[in-house]
Each structure stands twice: as C-alpha cells, then as structure tokens.
Write a structure and sequence with these properties.
single chain; Trafficking protein particle complex subunit 9; Ig_TRAPPC9_Trs120_4th; Trs120_TRAPPC9; 12 strands; seven-stranded mixed β-sheet; mainly beta; five-stranded antiparallel β-sheet
C-alpha cells in the first residue's frame, strides 16, 4: 500500500493537508499456484475512538476522488493487480483505512490472513496560511 507514493507501515502515520488530494495505491500479488478472481477491493475510511468504537460515517470529513471500490477480473499466479485512487480530506483529524477484498464468485469476504495489508493511518492537518493572505 502506498499513500502519496510512500510505502505504508502500521507504525508510521501518513501526513497530508486538508483540501489536497492524497493518492492511494494498493497492489495485490497472487503468490498461489492458481489464478484468483474475480475480486472486489473496497477502501473504507473510519475514525478509531480508541474505546472499541469505529466511526465509518465520515461522508462530510473525507471523500474519494473517483471510486472507493475496485473490480479485479483475475490475477494469474505470480502476477499483480494495482488499484489506484485518491482521497480528499475536508477537515483535520486522524483517519484509518479499512481495506477489504471480496471474492465476487461467492460474494464472501476473504480472510485477512490471505493478505499482508498494512494498517493505514492518515493524519489530515490544516494548510498553513500564506503570508499576506
């Protein structure tokens, strides 16, 4: 997972500015001996209140430029599929991304153990005012 062209690490917070597009790239590589697909990859932003509650109702705080859902026809063995999109933060705050993959042939969510997706934590901050503004 890349945020603004930088690799994500669950221990690192990706910083961005409110009102500036944040690019997101998710690369899925098939390490099995068989082709997989069709798949749906969905990115869902949420706020974690650190008390067991996760707020997914962020329509007024963050929006996607384009879609938050990507359809992947098939990934052959040892090959990859890349999903690219962008987010726009409308307010300051800390947001996490929940990235889910669903098998479209069975309509079931695939176990997270099949993937090594890092946790994505983005901190949106105010853009500093320019001198003379």
């Amino acid at each position: 997972v890349l945020v603004n062209s930088k690799p994500c690490d669950c221990d690192v917070v990706a910083d961005c500015k409110v009102g500036e597009a944040v690019t997101l790239k998710v690369k899925l590589t098939n390490m099995s001996k068989n082709p997989v697909g069709p798949l749906t990859l969905t990115v869902m932003p949420y706020q974690d209140y650190q008390n067991g509650i996760q707020n997914y109702d962020l329509d007024e705080a963050v929006t996607f430029i384009g879609s938050n859902t990507f359809f992947i026809d098939m990934v052959k063995p040892k090959e990859s599929s890349v999903c690219e999109g962008a987010l726009l933060f409308l307010y300051t705050g800390d947001v996490y991304l929940n990235i889910k993959v669903q098998d479209d042939s069975t309509r079931r969510e695939l176990p997270l153990a099949w993937f090594t997706l890092p946790g994505v934590h983005i901190r949106a901050q105010d853009t500093p005012l320019q001198a003379g503004a």
